[in-house]
Write a structure and sequence with these properties.
With about 675 residues, this protein is an alpha/beta fold. It folds into three domains: about 10-350, TIM Barrel (Alpha-Beta Barrel), CATH 3.20.20; about 380-470 and about 625-665, NAD(P)-binding Rossmann-like Domain (Rossmann fold), CATH 3.40.50; about 485-620, 3-Layer(bba) Sandwich (FAD/NAD(P)-binding domain). Helix content is about 35%, strand content about 15%. An eight-stranded parallel β-barrel has the order 3-4-6-9-10-11-12-13, surrounded by seven helices. Strand 11 (about 250-255), helix 8 and strand 12 (about 290) form a beta-alpha-beta unit. Helix 1 runs parallel beside helix 2 (about 80-90) and helix 19 packs antiparallel against helix 20 (about 540-550). It is globular, with a radius of gyration of 27 Å.
C-alpha cells in the first residue's frame, strides 16, 4: 500500500531503510545541553517504531548560538552523551543524524550573558524584540570553524549524518536574506550567490570536517514567507550551490519564526507545503525531503507518487505515534494516532521553555516509564461520556484487561466535534476518530445515542464508573439572555442554530473566537470554488481573495477582559487573531454587557453604548456537567470524575486525565 514510502533510499554511501524521516525538533529534554535518559528513550522509541532517518537537535555549536537548553556540541564534553544517543537510534535500524544550529539574531540576549545576539547585520529581530550586533569579518570566519568543529564531534560520536539548519530564520537564512543581510563586504550583496557565500562556506567546511563517508544535509526554507525575503526560486538556487559543495540532501520546510503564514498548526492543510520541495527538486539532482503538516503515511505516499519529493518528514506525527512507520508496513494504518496540529503539547510548551509532550500521546517524553500493568482483577467498568477523556479512559482500561462499556448520549467526540466545525480546525475530529478506533480494537463496547439515567447507572452493576460527562455552556447572568434573538455558540457550531445577518458574539475566549470565525465565513467561497475560479481565470485573484475572506454576516466580538483569546495557546492564537482581522470581525475589549435587547447589546464603559445586531451569540465559556455524578456517586463502589466534568480545561488535559484514570483502575 505504501510501496514508495517504504522503499529504501540511498544517501551517499548509506542506505536508509525507508523514506520516512524524523526531522530535528527541540524537545526540551536537555535543560543543560547534555543528553539525558529521557532524550535517548524518546528517540529510541521512534527508531524502534521504524523511522528510516532520525535527525536530532538542533544542537548549538558555540556559546552564542542558542540557549543552554538546546542539545549541544559546542565542546568535547558533550560527545559521550551524543554517543549514547546515536547508539540508541542505530541499534534499532535507523540512521542517526544531528542538526547544527546557530540562531543568530533569534538568540535572546539573556541566554548569552546579556550580550547582544550576533547576526549578519544589526537589523532588529521581530522574534526577540532586540537588535543584534553585526558580525565582524573575522568573527564570521570563526563561526564557520565552529560549525566544522561541531560536525567533527558529531562524527566522533558516531552519527551517520550531519545536517545544517538554514531555515526558520536562523543564521544561515539570515545571511541569505536581503531583509537581514545588508552587508557590503564579501558576505553581503544584491545577488543571492553573494549572500549565499556564508552558507556555501559552512557547507564546504563541514564537508571537509566530516569526510567522505558521512551524509551531509541542509534544512532549507522553501520560502521565507517574510516580506522582501527569499521565495522558492531563491531556495532552489541556493540548493544548487549546496549540491556543488557535496551536500547529499536538502530537507525543505517553510517560513521563519516571524512568518505570519501558519506552518505547522491545524489551519495548514495536510501536505500543503510539499510544493516547496517540488520547486527545489526540479532544480537539483540530490534527494529532496518534503516537510510540514504530514501526519499519515497516505499523505507521504501521495507526495512521493506525485514526484514532489524523494523522502517525507514526519515530525510531530512521530511525537504523536512513534510506531507510525511500523504500523504502515504491517497494514495497520487504521491504528495510527494522528497529529492534529493543535500545538498544545509541543510548540506551546517549547515557547514556555517546558518539555514537549503530546495531546494525543500522553506517553510522549515518558517512554522510559513502565507501561500500565495488566489489571490484577478484571473489573466491569462503565464509562459515561464519549468525549476525548472518556474514550481515552475506556481504551486504556480495556487494553489492561478490563471489561469496558462506554455510553454516550449523543455521538462520540464531545466538544472536539464542535471545535472542528470552525475554519481550519477540521483535523480535531481525528482525535475522537483515532481514540474510537483504539477503543474498539481493545474491545470496548461503544454505545452511542443511549443516555443513561441515574438509576440505570446504579443497576448496571459496574465495579468502577468513570464519569466523563463533559461541560455545558454557561449562560451569563445578563438581563435579556433568554430573548428570541439569543443563540448559544455550541448550537451555532453544531448547525442547530443559524444567526442573522448582523451578529454580536458575547465572549472572546477560545469558543468565542471559533464561533466568530465560523459565522464570519458563512457565505464565503469554499476551496473547490476558489480553485475553479482561479483555474478558469473567471475573476481577478484579488476579488477571489476578498470573497474567500468575507462571508455574508457582519460580526462583532465583545470581551469584557482586555485581551481576546487569552485562553488560547501561543502557537495558534496569533493565527486566529489574524483570521478575525482578515474576516472583518470587529473586536471590542474591556467592556461589560449591561443587557441584551431586541436591538442588540447595551455596553457599559467608554465607547458607543449599543452594538446593533440581529442575533446575539453567547460564548461565555462552560461549566462542569456533573449532574449524574452528584446523583449517584455515593451509591457506587468506585467512581472517577474526569475531563471537563471535573474541571473545564483543554482537550490536552482531558486526554491526559483519561489515560491516568484508565491506567489506575
Amino acid at each position: 500500500m505504501y510501496d514508495r514510502l517504504l522503499q529504501p533510499l540511498q544517501l551517499r554511501h548509506r542506505t536508509v531503510r525507508n523514506r520516512i524521516v524524523m526531522p530535528a525538533m527541540h524537545m526540551g529534554y536537555t535543560p543543560q545541553g547534555e543528553v539525558t535518559r529521557q532524550l535517548t528513550d524518546f528517540y529510541s522509541a521512534r527508531a524502534r517504531g521504524g523511522a528510516g532517518l532520525i535527525v536530532v537537535g538542533a544542537c548549538t555549536i558555540d556559546q552564542f548560538s542558542g540557549g543552554p537548553f538546546f542539545i549541544s556540541l559546542r565542546d568535547g564534553s558533550f560527545v559521550p552523551g551524543m554517543q549514547r544517543l546515536a547508539r540508541a537510534i542505530q541499534e534499532h535500524g535507523a540512521l542517526a543524524g544531528v542538526q547544527l544550529l546557530h540562531a543568530g539574531r533569534y538568540v535572546h540576549s539573556f541566554l548569552i550573558g546579556g550580550q547582544p545576539a550576533l547576526a549578519p547585520s544589526a537589523v532588529p529581530s521581530r522574534y526577540t524584540r532586540e537588535t543584534p550586533r553585526e558580525l565582524t569579518y573575522d568573527e564570521i570566519r570563526e563561526v564557520i570553524l565552529h560549525y566544522a568543529s561541531a560536525a567533527a564531534r558529531a562524527v566522533e560520536a558516531g552519527f551517520d549524518a550531519v545536517e545544517v539548519i538554514a531555515s526558520a530564520g536562523y543564521l544561515v537564512a539570515q545571511f541569505l536574506s536581503p531583509v537581514t543581510n545588508q552587508r557590503t563586504d564579501d558576505y553581503g550583496g544584491r545577488t543571492l550567490p553573494e549572500r549565499a557565500r556564508f552558507g556555501v562556506e559552512v557547507a564546504r567546511a563541514v564537508r571537509a570536517a566530516v569526510g567522505d563517508s558521512t551524509i551531509l544535509g541542509f534544512r532549507l526554507a522553501g520560502n521565507d514567507f517574510v516580506p522582501g525575503g527569499n521565495t522558492n526560486a531563491q531556495a532552489a538556487e541556493f540548493a544548487r550551490l549546496l549540491e556543488a559543495e557535496g551536500v547529499d540532501y536538502v530537507s525543505v520546510t517553510g517560513g521563519w519564526h516571524e512568518t505570519r503564514v501558519p506552518q505547522i498548526i491545524a489551519a495548514v492543510p495536510q501536505g500543503a507545503y510539499a510544493y516547496l520541495a517540488r520547486g527545489v527538486r526540479e532544480r537539483v539532482g540530490i534527494p529532496v525531503f518534503a516537510a510540514n503538516r504530514i501526519n499519515h503515511p497516505g499523505v507521504g505516499e501521495r507526495i512521493l507518487a506525485d514526484g514532489l519529493a524523494d523522502a517525507v518528514c514526519f515530525g510531530r506525527a512521530l511525537i504523536a505515534d512513534p510506531d507510525l512507520p511500523r504500523k504502515a508496513s504491517e497494514g495497520r494504518q487504521d491504528r495510527i494516532i494522528r497529529c492534529v496540529g493543535c500545538g498544545q503539547g509541543c510548540f506551546d510548551r517549547v515557547m514556555s521553555l517546558e518539555a514537549v509532550t503530546c495531546m494525543v500521546n500522553p506517553l510522549a517524553g515518558r517512554e522510559g516509564e513502565a507501561p500500565p500493568p495488566p489489571a490484577t482483577r478484571r473489573k466491569k467498568v462503565l464509562v459515561v461520556g464519549g468525549g476525548p477523556a472518556g474514550l481515552m479512559a475506556a481504551a486504556t482500561a480495556a487494553e489492561r484487561g478490563h471489561e469496558v462499556v462506554l455510553h454516550e448520549r449523543v455521538s462520540l467526540g464531545g466538544q472536539l466535534a464542535l471545535a472542528a466545525s470552525s475554519p481550519g480546525r477540521r483535523d480535531l475530529r481525528l482525535i475522537s476518530n483515532d481514540l474510537e478506533a483504539r477503543a474498539m480494537a481493545a474491545g470496548v463496547d461503544l454505545r452511542t445515542g443511549q443516555p443513561l439515567e441515574a438509576d440505570a447507572i446504579v443497576s448496571f452493576g459496574a465495579d468502577a464508573v468513570v464519569f466523563a460527562t463533559g461541560g455545558r455552556p454557561l449562560t451569563p447572568h445578563i438581563p435579556g439572555n433568554d430573548g428570541p434573538n439569543v443563540q448559544h455558540a455550541w448550537d451555532v457550531l453544531a448547525g442547530r442554530a443559524v444567526p442573522g445577518r448582523s451578529v454580536a458574539v458575547l465572549g472572546g475566549g477560545a469558543v468565542g473566537v471559533d464561533v466568530a470565525r465560523h459565522i464570519a465565513l458563512l457565505g464565503s467561497l469554499d476551496a473547490e470554488t476558489i480553485r475553479f475560479l482561479l483555474v478558469e481565470e473567471a475573476e481577478a485573484p484579488e476579488e477571489i481573495r476578498r470573497l474567500a475572506r468575507r462571508g455574508t454576516r457582519q460580526v462583532t466580538l465583545v470581551e469584557m477582559r482586555s485581551k481576546i483569546g487569552a485562553d488560547i495557546g501561543v502557537s495558534t492564537r496569533w493565527s486566529l487573531m489574524q483570521d478575525l482581522e482578515r474576516y472583518g470581525v470587529t473586536m471590542i475589549t474591556g467592556r461589560k454587557v449591561a443587557r441584551i435587547t431586541a436591538e442588540g447589546l447595551e455596553l457599559e464603559g467608554d465607547g458607543p453604548p449599543l452594538v446593533t445586531c440581529d442575533t446575539v451569540v453567547l460564548a461565555a465559556g462552560a461549566e462542569p456537567e456533573r449532574t449524574l455524578y452528584d446523583a449517584v456517586a455515593s451509591r457506587l463502589p468506585e467512581t472517577h470524575l474526569i475531563g471537563d466534568a471535573k474541571e473545564v480545561r483543554r482537550a490536552f488535559d482531558a486526554v491526559a486525565e483519561g489515560y491516568a484514570v484508565g491506567s489506575a483502575i
